UniProtKB/TrEMBL annotation, chain A:
Keywords: Cell membrane, Membrane, Molybdenum, Sulfate transport, Transmembrane, Transmembrane helix, Transport. Part of the ABC transporter complex CysAWTP (TC 3.A.1.6.1) involved in sulfate/thiosulfate import. Probably responsible for the translocation of the substrate across the membrane. Part of the binding-protein-dependent transport system for molybdenum; probably responsible for the translocation of the substrate across the membrane. The chain crosses the membrane at residues 12-33, 53-79, 91-113, 125-152, 181-202, 236-255. It comes from Nocardioides agariphilus. Belongs to the binding-protein-dependent transport system permease family. CysTW subfamily. The gene is modB. This is Molybdenum transport system permease. GO terms for cellular component: plasma membrane. Its main location: membrane.
Automatic annotation (TrEMBL), chain B:
Belongs to the bacterial solute-binding protein ModA family. Residues 1-23 form the signal peptide. One of its GO terms (molecular function) is molybdate ion binding. It holds the Pfam family SBP_bac_11. This is Molybdate-binding protein ModA. The keyword Cell wall biogenesis/degradation does not apply. SUPFAM superfamilies: Periplasmic binding protein-like II. GO terms for cellular component: plasma membrane. It comes from Nocardioides agariphilus. It comes from the Bacteria. Keywords: Cell membrane, Membrane, Metal-binding, Molybdenum, Signal, Transport, Tungsten. GO terms for biological process: molybdate ion transport. The complex is composed of two ATP-binding proteins (ModC), two transmembrane proteins (ModB) and a solute-binding protein (ModA). Molybdate binds at S46, S74, V177, Y195.
């Protein structure tokens, strides 16, 4: 829908905006141009590729679910709670955003690995996390969680607590307020946060390869498969990269659509 | 806004681009004699320590020459060189990756074989998995990590498996030998297949278990002086490629071979 803005944009923004768009889009065009189309279908439907794709899809969905379960309460505490060290707490929670993913993987290893903080007791109970699909989901959740928390906390603060206060004053219980007022109000923010988290999980590489390893069908997700294929078969790597790109575009487009309808 | 500050801004921008990208300088490959000449060496990651030592020796022998290294997976380096990276010398961890360059016009001299490397089992200190032989790696319940068959160390592991009939079911097939080593040093894996040189370089962090079957898969390291893109354009190209050959010669010399032997490499053929 096109609408006339009451205030024009300053004219100088167009050039950098254009340069920025080209900077993002040109490399994507370059990937598409590199694709070996005649053998594209064979490359992306090979057993390795399919195994990696389904694993990526399953683990990214699982880690998005984990992000929602853990991230929504975290965002609520950060947005509604008022205490002195909130700023510090927020910075700590957001740390995985700036942490190189490989360091995140190491941190997980030092925590849940066999000799890690918790891993030793887990190992004694016969539970081994490293090299399992669970480890992939944990790595993805670790790096994706801040995206959901930041996005949702912003929505919660923008929405404010007027309606929550009104509902509570009329006798609604905190859970009812959450269910009937807060959640519907911030649903668009939650959806876009979840999409961001899903996209981040889908592209996760560093923490996964450090913490979970790489085995077909178990821990080798699409980004790991792309990285490995590049060694011997760059055409396959490019083809898979395109699949990942298209998939990401679809997910983001779908979510935008959904958000617009809310 | 007047145009003066804008021009100043532009000048600053250009200047900062120059500072970072080096305007007008032709990366010093040769044109101005030995003074400030840089020799760029692309070498397999497993050569990091040895080649840095050889590079220091080379700088000592050639006044005003700086040796710059780019270490990485051999296939990564090959694709960078194919995309025009300014490499003067390339040392690969296997012949397959060097062969990719022989087809191109980038190769100046025929590759020379300067070292070999064989596989060894690396286990965490104390050997918690009680691994004694290559056949032990097939034991149930043992967390074994290997390289993926797509990378040279994994190809070597497959060769040994095929020759011995031992079928390893790894918990992970890693991207590189350093990734395998990291899984062993952290104690996540009970055993990993790496190169002899990696076990030596890791020091006390791992224990090495040599096995006779490793002779089934010997990795040969080739090295070659390259004609890089900028050299081919400039008429005065003899300088840098001469230096590149001199570096190759140093690697092949008794001195270079000693440095490699100290790190655990075996001489080539």
């Amino acid at each position: 829908m096109k609408q006339q803005r009451p205030v024009d944009l300053p004219r100088w923004v167009y050039l950098p905006a254009l340069v920025g768009a080209a900077f993002v889009l040109l490399p994507l065009v370059a990937v598409v141009a590199k694709v070996d189309w005649p053998s594209f279908l064979d490359l992306v439907t090979s057993e390795d590729s399919r195994a990696a794709f389904w694993l990526s899809l399953r683990t990214s969905l699982a880690s998005t679910a984990a992000c929602i379960v853990l991230g929504v309460p975290m965002a609520m505490v950060l947005a509604r709670w008022d205490f002195r060290y909130l700023g510090v707490l927020r910075s700590l929670v957001l740390l995985p955003l700036v942490l190189p993913p490989v360091v995140g993987g190491l941190a997980l290893l030092y925590t849940f690995g066999r000799r890690g903080l918790l891993g030793q007791s887990l190992d004694a109970m016969g539970i081994q996390i490293a090299f399992s699909t669970i480890a992939v989901v944990m790595a993805q959740t670790f790096v994706a969680l801040p995206f959901l928390v930041v996005s949702l906390e912003g929505s919660l603060r923008t929405a404010g607590d007027r309606y929550e206060v009104a509902a509570a004053s009329l006798g609604a219980s905190p859970t009812t307020v959450f269910r009937r007022i807060t959640l519907p109000l911030v649903l668009p923010g939650l959806v876009s946060g979840a999409v961001l988290a899903f996209a981040r999980a889908l592209g996760e590489f560093g923490a996964t390869i450090t913490f979970a390893g790489s085995l077909q069908g178990r821990t080798r997700t699409l980004p790991l498969e792309i990285y490995l294929q590049r060694e011997t078969d760059p055409d396959a790597a490019v083809a898979l990269a395109l699949v990942l790109l298209v998939f990401a575009v679809l997910v983001i487009g779908f979510a935008r659509q959904g958000r617009g309808a809310v | 806004m007047s145009s003066r500050p804008r021009r100043a801004l532009l000048a600053t921008a250009v200047l900062s681009v120059c500072l970072t990208a080096g305007c007008g300088g032709d990366d010093g490959s040769g044109a101005s004699g030995d003074e400030g000449t840089t020799l760029t060496v692309y070498a397999a990651a497993s050569l990091t320590q040895t080649f840095e030592a050889i590079g220091a020796e080379f700088e000592k022998q050639h006044d005003g020459v700086t040796v710059e290294f780019s270490f990485g997976g051999s296939s990564d380096l090959v694709s960078q060189i194919q995309e025009g990276a300014p490499a003067d010398v390339f040392a690969s961890a296997d012949t397959a990756n060097m062969d990719k360059l022989t087809g191109e016009d980038l190769q100046a001299a025929d590759p020379q074989y300067f070292a070999t490397n064989t596989l060894e089992i690396a286990v965490p200190p104390g050997n918690p998995g009680a691994v004694r032989s290559f056949a032990d790696l097939a034991k149930a319940g043992l967390n074994v990590v290997v390289c993926a068959p797509e990378v040279p160390c994994g190809a070597a592991a497959v060769k040994v498996e095929e020759a011995t009939g031992v079928d390893i079911a790894p918990v992970s097939e890693e991207q590189s030998v350093t990734d395998v080593l990291a899984k062993v040093t952290s104690g996540e894996a009970d055993a990993g297949l790496v190169y002899v040189t990696d076990v030596i370089a890791a020091g006390d962090d791992v224990e090495g278990i040599a096995f006779a079957e490793s002779a089934e898969a010997v990795n040969t390291y080739p090295i070659a002086a390259l004609k890089d893109a900028s050299d081919r354009d400039s008429p005065d190209s003899s300088d840098s490629s001469g230096l590149a050959q001199a570096f190759v010669d140093l690697v092949m010399s008794a001195e270079g071979q000693q440095i490699l032997a100290d790190a655990g490499f075996a001489p080539a053929g």
